Amino acid sequence: MSTFGGTLVEYERLSVDRFDGRNVHSTAFLLSHCHRDHMHGLDGCAFRRRLRSRRDVRLYASAVSCRLLLNEPKYSWLRSRLSALPLDAPTTLTVPADGAAGSEYAVVVTPIPANHCAGSVMFLLEGERGGTVLYTGDFRLDMGRAPALTSLHCDTGRVKPIDAAYVDTTLCRPDAAYVPTRQESERALVDFFAPKFQVGWSLRLRLPGAKLGYETLFASLALAFGVKVHVTRGQMSRYAGVADVVKCLTLDAETTRIHADCECDLGPACVTVKPSAMWFAHRVAPSRLVERVADGLHRLCYSTHASLAEVRDLVRYLKPRAVRANVHLRGVDVGALLGVADTREPTWNFWGSDDESA
């Protein structure tokens, strides 16, 4: 659960993933993805008044996130105030002035795929105003994959000097040091269900509250078993226009034996699997990614957030001058877990909910 307050130290009047409180005084807004804990205030009256008060105040997101937003009727009013940013393409944005609150300035924003959920991106910000800043939002990046993020490198191939990195610390805790990759988790589920599928059983997925984020799981199941995943009309309408996801889904429950969050009567030959990450704390092992918890009910170790090891890997590769946590974990010394007590490591600053209310 993100506790990031929305404002960046380096770039004033630019808010990210928060649209309430002091953020309504900003003049440019970024949305990394469409999960509720990153959308506080987005449907609020104060934010609506802010965007409608000036033509030069806009909300920026990836093209898929824009589509997901507009698929929800309560966000339809954003259509004329919403701008899609192309992936891995630097785009110069103007952060407008606001009366006596300083002059307008330019910042180059590059959205980088974050592999967290459909449409999710990191934002790389570059400009004279605040230097080079990386905001990861929520992300999942396998170990050793940072060199493949071309937008974080200069034309010569060297890593861009990062002045500050705001990182996803959701799983920066000792019991989440090892988290299987999505591919490992998806393969474990396929291997678990394959014998049952062959004898006519059905699979029901019970998704956690954040329904977005399981698109690659749908794709893996559809590919492995040659059938689409049955979803509700609500789920299908949420993904309308997102072709890569919709092609794996169906509204016809009779044509498949894989179902997600439906209430169909699937009979006794059905196994229910709930993807989750934190339930596996102290339990997870590479050989036990699917655990039985009751008759017909299993848990799948599946994370859309980077593990402690993956966050450490990214931070040590980029070597930013400062690192700031997007998630405040009470009682957990994230700096110590990442080894930032070493003077060669970047400084660590917490942005907890207590600090943000000040």
From TrEMBL:
<keyword id="KW-0378">Hydrolase</keyword>
<keyword id="KW-0255">Endonuclease</keyword>
<keyword id="KW-0540">Nuclease</keyword>
<keyword id="KW-0539">Nucleus</keyword>
<dbReference type="GO" id="GO:0000723">
    <property type="term" value="P:telomere maintenance"/>
</dbReference>
<keyword id="KW-0269">Exonuclease</keyword>
<comment type="similarity">
    <text>Belongs to the DNA repair metallo-beta-lactamase (DRMBL) family.</text>
</comment>
<keyword id="KW-0233">DNA recombination</keyword>
<dbReference type="GO" id="GO:0006310">
    <property type="term" value="P:DNA recombination"/>
</dbReference>
<dbReference type="GO" id="GO:0031123">
    <property type="term" value="P:RNA 3'-end processing"/>
</dbReference>
<keyword id="KW-0227">DNA damage</keyword>
<dbReference type="GO" id="GO:0036297">
    <property type="term" value="P:interstrand cross-link repair"/>
</dbReference>
<dbReference type="InterPro" id="IPR036866">
    <property type="entry name" value="RibonucZ/Hydroxyglut_hydro"/>
</dbReference>
<dbReference type="Pfam" id="PF12706">
    <property type="entry name" value="Lactamase_B_2"/>
</dbReference>
<dbReference type="GO" id="GO:0035312">
    <property type="term" value="F:5'-3' DNA exonuclease activity"/>
</dbReference>
<dbReference type="InterPro" id="IPR011084">
    <property type="entry name" value="DRMBL"/>
</dbReference>
<dbReference type="GO" id="GO:0005634">
    <property type="term" value="C:nucleus"/>
</dbReference>
<keyword id="KW-0234">DNA repair</keyword>
<dbReference type="GO" id="GO:0003684">
    <property type="term" value="F:damaged DNA binding"/>
</dbReference>
<feature type="domain" description="Metallo-beta-lactamase">
    <location>
        <begin position="27"/>
        <end position="176"/>
    </location>
</feature>
<dbReference type="Pfam" id="PF07522">
    <property type="entry name" value="DRMBL"/>
</dbReference>
<feature type="domain" description="DNA repair metallo-beta-lactamase">
    <location>
        <begin position="253"/>
        <end position="328"/>
    </location>
</feature>
<dbReference type="GO" id="GO:0006303">
    <property type="term" value="P:double-strand break repair via nonhomologous end joining"/>
</dbReference>
<protein>
    <recommendedName>
        <fullName>Protein artemis</fullName>
    </recommendedName>
</protein>
<dbReference type="GO" id="GO:0004519">
    <property type="term" value="F:endonuclease activity"/>
</dbReference>
<dbReference type="InterPro" id="IPR001279">
    <property type="entry name" value="Metallo-B-lactamas"/>
</dbReference>
